[in-house]
Amino acid sequence: MIMFSSWMFPSILLILGFFVFVSNRKHLLSMLLSLEYIVLSLFLLLFIYLNLFNYESFFSMMFLTFSVCEGALGLSILVSMIRTHGNDYFQSFNVLQC
């Protein structure tokens, strides 16, 4: 029962993160925050998996490093978008929109 609940909580967090990412697509900052929420829930799932099967936790540190790089890239895109367009609306970033 404890093992089931340790897998269920991060899975629910992951599904909620996907729901927020899909439903809230107006601002780029809210999309980046929901992506970070998804990454943290994936890290929690990975950490539980690695501890359950007694694997090394080195891969989780690599995962955190790449997620920090992803966050820095997202923030740099946000800053450059605000400088060029003046807002963070995701619709103004779309080139194909008429």
| Class derived from helix and strand content | mainly alpha
Rg on CA atoms, Å: 17 Å
Number of helices, counting only DSSP H or I runs of 4 residues or more: 4
Number of domains: 1
Annotation, overall tally of beta strands = 0
Provide the β-strand percentage band: under 5%
Low-pLDDT runs of 5+ residues are: none
Q: Can you tell me the overall shape?
A: elongated
Q: Helical amount among residues, as a percent range?
A: over 70%
Mean pLDDT: 84
| Major sheet characteristics | none
- Topology pattern, helix = H, strand = E: HHHH
Second-tier CATH architecture: Orthogonal Bundle
The CATH topology is given as: Helix Hairpins
Question: Could you name the CATH class?
Answer: Mainly Alpha
Distance between the termini: 53 Å
Membrane topology: Multi-pass membrane protein
Organism: Celyphus obtectus
Family: Belongs to the complex I subunit 4L family.
EC number: 7.1.1.2
